[in-house]
Amino acid sequence: MRKPTTIETLYLDFDGFFASVEQQARPALRGKPIGIVPFEGTQHTVVIACSKEAKARGCHNVMKVPDALKACPDLILVPQTPDLYRRAHNTLLAEINTIIPIDAVKSIDELTCRLDTSQIKNPHDLADKIHNRIERYVGPHITCSIGFAANRQLAKIACKQDKPNGTTIWTPDLVPEVLFPLPFDDIPGIGENMQRRLNKIGVYDMQRLLALSPKHMRKIWNSVTGERLWYVLNGYALQAQKSERGMFGHGRVLPPDQRSIPEAFQIARMLLIKAARRMRKAGYYSHKLHLWCGMRESSFGTSIALSGVHDDKACIDGLKAVWARLEASVPRSSRIIRVGVTFGDLKLAGQRQTDILLNDDPERQKWEQVSHAIDHLNAKYSGSIVTLGPWTPPKGGHLGGKISFTRIPRAEDFW
Question: Which residues are part of the catalytic machinery?
Answer without folding.
Answer: 110
